[in-house]
Design goal:
The chain is mainly β and about 120 residues long. The protein has strands spanning about 5, 10-15, 20-25, 35-40, 45-50, 60, 70-75, 80-85, 90-100, 105, 110-115. It is built from no helices and 11 strands.
Length: about 120
């Protein structure tokens, strides 16, 4: 099992920034591509960003492109999501997930991000 624990969520005004962290334990973190997903009230969970095992390849959803940056530190077993220029529509529970064979195999418990207008 790979345990994932998110932190860094909170309440922020529109235009502000937050950095989410996801700390992993239990298995070899660097073996997994990592992703951030989010789920807003009444909506389905959606992809936000993904980073390769080495950290050299990243991808982000069009809705957050240019504002959010995903990164990882394999020495610290941690993946990050830097969120800038936040908008009220970014309000959601944010989850990190570890990918195995293209699917999210392990999930964190989620962290709430609320952006006020």
């Amino acid at each position: 099992q790979l345990q994932l624990v998110e932190s860094g969520g909170g309440l922020v005004q529109a235009g502000g920034s937050l950095r989410l962290s996801c700390a992993a334990s239990g298995r070899t973190f660097s073996n997994y591509a990592m992703a951030w997903l989010r789920q807003a009230p009444g909506k389905e969970r959606e992809f936000v960003a993904r980073v390769s095992t080495s950290g050299t390849l990243t991808g982000t959803a069009d809705s957050v492109k240019g504002r959010f940056t995903i990164s990882r530190d394999n020495a610290k077993n941690t993946v990050y999501l830097q969120m800038n220029s936040l908008k009220p529509e970014d309000t959601a529970v944010y989850y990190c997930a570890a990918e195995l064979f293209g699917s999210c195999a392990y999930w964190g418990q989620g962290t709430q991000v609320t952006v006020s207008s």
